[in-house]
Here is the input.
Amino acid sequence: MSGAKLDIARGDVSGILGAAKPIPWEVAVRGKITRDMVEELSRIRGEPDWMRRLRLRALEMFERQPWPNWLPIEGSIDLESLVLYAKPTVERARSWDELPRELREYYEALKIPELEAKVLSGVIGQVDSGVTYESVKKDLERAGVVAMSMDEAVKRYPDLVKQYFAKVFPPEYKFASLNIALWGGGVFVYVPPNTHIKLPLELVILISSAGVGQFEHSLIVVGENSSVEFIVACAAPVFTGVSLHDGMTEAYIHRGARVRLVDLKNWSRGVIYFGNNRAIIEEEASVDWLSGSLGGKVTIVYPMSVLRGVGSRATVTSVALANGPTWKEEGAKVFHTAPHTYSKVVSKGVSLNGGTSVYRGLVYVREGARYAKSSVSCESLVLDERSRAYTIPHEQVFEVTATVTHEAYTGRLGEDKLFYLRSRGLSEEEARSLVVLGYFHDVMVNLPVEYVSVFNRAIELELSRLGGVG
Here is the structure.
């Protein structure tokens, strides 16, 4: 398998990433997912034996677990048709000038070099299955922070990685097992105790073409009384055909630490996305999840927060734009297992041109989690008769002192509002864009202003697709 190359046709590209340019692969592996394939992947990557065994155990779970019957997809995803490991020929760069021009233009279209210079403490860039760019500020290294590609961390920090890898999110369902068996790329971040990283770290993930299976795996470990913000930005050019992103982010947040995890997605129409994201939060620690979703064929992501320590906290905020024949399912799972824990979930979805937005969530309060508090708020805006919005909350409360609330609202954009905006000189497309941007504004203001500008521009481009809005 090693050294094989596949030539996959690339379609025309439009939108924020500009024109498509082929990214050649040094190694490409596809076919039936077997023990031999998984062992070959581990050999190609030069991994230690413990990681090979971990992959094989996950493969055994994958083979035993049933295919999820809740997926909004007709039939199964044909995994054998995908390139399951695609390593670019690009050498890993430490500066943008070292990257090939065609790849650098992708990053420039996303304004990543500009963002790195202004608001980031480090950037790691992944294309398909391989990391192609890695740059972290020197002051982080001097403070004892580890921030590097996951494949490098497995070799350089094996004891630390083994302690947490696949322990926060074990192979407990089909797509988690698949990720652990086939993972490639992702980031390892370790923040030692009493260390505060002022500027975010970012992982930028690109899928270069149709027919690719991407299995990024990131692990974030934050020591006591420390803080960090980690951003995952996903994008793909427009291409014909289906690709799969089955990613995973594990976070272990020690006592008193504060962590912010941001997940921004701007996919091509053909991408099926599963986000397997989970955090374990110890005493007096907190996690803030923020998810923004554009594009894609199917998006399913509901980050899980396990409030393990007394006084631990979690907030989950998601915004999703379902434009055209797409299914956007964003939500949250929160497990209150200790006293005086707190969670807040806010979800906003917009559906138009036949799109479907879904909130699906679970709040679980264990007996003994005294005085736990949780609030869930779901809002949906439907812009036409062909589109749909659903709210599917689930609550399991076994503690009488707990307070759990849920509220949901679904509304339609009235013609009177559009008429008023058009009377002010706006076109219908501009009017709808203004409404959607305003609807998301109170959530997006939590991002740095540079990211708000990029995301707003991506929303405007998304609303101009499929022959315009309305």
Summary: Residues 1-16, 466-470 have pLDDT under 50 and may be disordered. The longest strand covers residues 243-253.
